[in-house]
Amino acid sequence: MTSLGVLLVMVNLGALNVALPAIARHFHTGAALSNWILLSYMVVNTVLILVFGQFSDAFGRKMLYLLGMAAFTVMSFVVGFAQNIWLFILFRALQAAGGALIITNNTALITDAFPEAKLSSGLAANVLISSVAQLVGPVVGGVIASTLGWQWVFWSTVPIGVVGVVWGWFTLRHLPSQGSGRRIDTLGGAVTFVALSALIIALSEGSSLGWTAPLVLGGLVLFALLVPLLIWVEQRTHTPMFDFSLFANRAYAMANVATFLNSFARVSVVLLVSLYLQSLLHVDAFFAGISVLPVTVGMIVAAPLTGPLANRFSARILSTTGLGISAVGLILLMGGLRVHLSASLNDSGMFLVGFGSGLFMTPNTRSIMTGVPPERRGFANGLRSMLQNMGQVLSTAVSMTIITSILPLRLQNVVYTGTSGTLPAKDMALIDTGYRLAFLALLAATLAGMAASSLRGESGSPTHPGG
């Protein structure tokens, strides 16, 4: 049942990545607003995931999960009627709030329901469903955007949401957390909301406004000022949202760092390849969706292997190996993505990125979720999901900044919406260089993730979840 929520969210996100050029053309948006078609969801979702984590620990998970499913479904219907780009961004932000409730409670519900011996299998099944959703998403987005229109990219997920709400109401067990009745850290949540919003907006706008723009600098300064305030507030609160004592566990801390870096390195691969094919090589949305499938196929192949392997080998070994495989895939992509595409390098590179990420996720998630007391699983999953989303937001912002930073203004919009003609070889070479530099940044993050994963140490036997 919980996997249906993942299916709903991931199909929607995957479809939007491929449908982005069609939406940008429909609303006649430039580079800055096109960026917010993607980031409006990610900003709100990322900020609220962590804030909602404490609600999960305080009030239980079932009703909050179903509320998120209902909200996401309603907004999936409404967003298709947006009359301008500002309404579109507003509706996507509201949809993101529903998605935050789904993601915050999803993994925590699984961890509550499965005994420790079977938890890896439960988490692996969830990763498998998520991977299938990512496989279906780009295809659905490509087919629907090129035939029925971008609106149906959202409307097509409404039946999934309706089924999920009804099914969940009757089948989900009420499993209140052991922390039920815990007081909500209102001040800590408010400071966190403002601080993360400032950071994400600054990072998001840096690629379009420039890193010295007042909005960008103001956001970074505000974040820097609020972090010490948050630490001060949390140390003086009886029921803090942030339990800093958890990070004294090196395995837990390094697993969270690796989560962020893996997300940063993987998420932009589908977006970058899809944009390159559509905007520069004039490939239609359907074929672009098909072309990025090797990433998800790799995750699907890896998912059923990780459950049994996680019971035999430590998270340190499996997760570090997975990141290493992803690094090899990124190296192949740096050589394969060019005007005269190397299909073998591209497909192999995307498959390895997906396979490596799939091998990484299950043992790393198990290490995080079983490394905290049961009454803090809502926070632990909220933090893990927030770091994943922060990786996605930063990955999108940094990747697009790297690509456009070396381009003249006349070529920057081409990266998002394409051009009706063929670009001169000199311009294409410049854009190709931007894309290779972006993939180089993703490779650097992957190597840093390998270092973090290996530094978590061996905290027990291979079957110990914190290993």
UniProtKB/TrEMBL annotation:
Keywords: Cell membrane, Membrane, Transmembrane, Transmembrane helix, Transport. It holds the Pfam family MFS_1. Residues 1-456 form the Major facilitator superfamily (MFS) profile domain. It is a multi-pass membrane protein. It is found in: Cell membrane. The chain crosses the membrane at residues 31-52, 64-83, 89-111, 123-146, 152-172, 184-203, 209-233, 254-279, 285-305, 317-337, 349-372, 393-415, 435-455. It comes from the Bacteria. Belongs to the major facilitator superfamily. EmrB family. PANTHER family: MAJOR FACILITATOR SUPERFAMILY MULTIDRUG TRANSPORTER MFSC. This is EmrB/QacA subfamily drug resistance transporter. It comes from Alicyclobacillus cycloheptanicus.
